[in-house]
Amino acid sequence: MAGVATPQIIRLSVEELERLLAELRDLLPPATYQLVEGLLRTLQWVLGLLDEKTATLARIRRLVGGDQTEKTSKLLGTARTRDQTQRPKTKPKGHGRKSAKDYPGAQRVSVPHPEHKAGQICPKCLRGKLYALKSPAMIIRIVAQPLLRATRFELERLRCALCGALFTAPPPPEAGEGKYDPSVGVMLALMRYGAGLPMYRMGKWQSYFGVPLAPTTQWELIVAASQIPALIYDTLIGLAAQGQVLHNDDTFMRVQSLRQEITTAALEQPDPDQRTGIFTTGIVARVGEVRIALFFTGQQHAGENLAKVLQQRASELTPPLQMCDGLPRNEPKAFTTLVANCLLHGRRHFVEIRENFPEECRKVLENLREVYRFDALTREQQLSEAQRLAFHQEHSRPVMDDLKTWMQDQLDQKRVEPNSGLGQAFNYMLKRWGALTRFLSVPGAPLDNNIAERTLKMAILHRKNSLSYKTLNGARVGDIHMSLIHTCALNQVNPFDYAMALQRHAAETLKTPSAWLPWNYHLAMAAAAGSG
User: Fold this and answer.
1) Which one, of 255, 428, 217, lies nearest residue 342 by Cα?
2) Residue at 42 is within a domain
3) What is the value of pTM for the model shown?
4) Can you point out the beta strands (E) in 185-298?
5) What is the mean pLDDT of residues 514-527?
6) Number of domains in the chain
7) What angle is formed at CA 335 by the lines to CA 331 and CA 341, rounded to 5 degrees?
8) What does each C-alpha distance from 517 to 245, 339, 495, 521 come to in angstroms?
């Protein structure tokens, strides 16, 4: 811009950045420091991207700003294929008016007819008899209320005018025990770790309704509500270790106490090999018909956290199928897994360079679109894993073989410079071809790692709204609650109802935690009700 001087580019080493942040920590308010820390680390990260050989403006723009979509039709601006245009259009899910069945959490109120009853003579024809229909007419009424409500029980007190004896009315049963009902801690955990609401924001919301709840009190209630879920969390880890398919990935996270330890160590004894990153790993395991989501926060990478899970795997089981991206740090070093790489990570390399190599990228993107269309057909037809494998081998293998041959020919015939963006994208795919096409040889092998990336959005939402965890203990509490909440979501279970069941049946859960998992706790509740 005219009249604006070019700023001086200042680069800091890891040690210099940590020293600067250590000085700023004592000078700035905590909230301001967290913001400045995030900006400086983001700037260092962007400068690091610029130093990479594979960095492109498109890639940096996607990582920093995030593309709105990567659909092939949007990227290429082309019409859909002939086979797709012939398919009838269906109404997208989530659009249009919702029916009464879309409100399973609504309170049910049965309203009888004020004038007529089943068995009476029809008042219109005076001949037939009325009978009740199985499906009543439905009306949905939605009202607002605060997140947490308080009831003040005013117990009458009487004093004797002669002897001074005091008589206080006994509290009613609905007054319960203690000031806070167990549902309060459950709801706070669900809002903080499921919806990403910081405690100060929830406290402000409650103050609007005249029911104040300080952040420190919220934290105490959340910790109290995590005792039984912690037992379920450990049980889920042991069960996930036996899974047939495990997805894993990680994202960076902030933990104040751990960051301070890393900074202090870097200042006192600089070590270029010291790991300075903090991460949250998301693992999704498929065990039979159920899905289990696990979160781990600390300095371990995704592969190291997966190794901790696999330590509990039964020795007689064959190695599990592992889906991840192509980074070596995602693979557990001490355990053997059948690795499948994410096809969309290979595709993304072509998305980033499509403006420079439009025709070549079009070829790749359209071929992969066909494969995903075939996979969608296997879900629509509800094929078994063996049938899905046979379907992909018949329809997707020719498409993928054609793509592999074409990419290899482009490199062999020197039509593509190996060190160019396109050449590197080709080599990424060809080098990992076996792992990228595992769905053509292994029953049930997924095409991509999307389920793990969607899982990590829960941790990312927490990071964006709350900025950081304070301690590793706080991070573990978050991991526990996030794991249970997202496991419930993956298995279509109401997380609030489930967490409340754990609180009400804490003694039974302590005895047999495996009977109180999200997909079987209803049976345990029924058994407990029958024995009671």
Assistant:
1) 428
2) yes
3) 0.82
4) 245-252, 279-287, 290-298
5) 94
6) 1
7) 30
8) 19, 28, 11, 5
